[in-house]
Amino acid sequence: MNTIEHLRGLFIYNDWANRRIVAALKRDSCDAARRILAHLLIAEKEYFERLYGKDSTGFDFWQNLSIEECGSQAVETAELYERLLKRFDEEGLDLRAKYRTSAGAEYENTFREMLAHVLLHSATHRGNIVAKMRESGFAPPPIDYIIYLRETKYV
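The structure assignment produced for this chain is given below.
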């Protein structure tokens, strides 16, 4: 399997895990977890826009979205990445994107690097969400990658 195929699969998993978290937080309201989810989803969208050179100077990555807004954001962002990755081939991942961070610093990374960052950032924060749900007395949904594979590939 090449990198682009692997990234496509990982972004499908990312969407699956995000939607499970949204559904769980609709059922068991946990404000701290919802705020982290909003950050995760906002960052996914902002990084998509950075791929195309967006200047994020002054951008607020910690906006207060409702759980319904989080659900809509999850769907919209997953569709953006799906369309992007369908258009790309292996060489496209080496394209470079110049962007500005929220602090105004200018950087340049490959699409491959930025896409990997989005996945790792989201996974980190889903772990934070699971911890906050447990602290609040709720049972978080199973969102491990291996569970995704078991439920979707081997059924």
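Interim note for the steering committee: The longest helix spans residues 3-27. The two ends are 21 Å apart (CA to CA).
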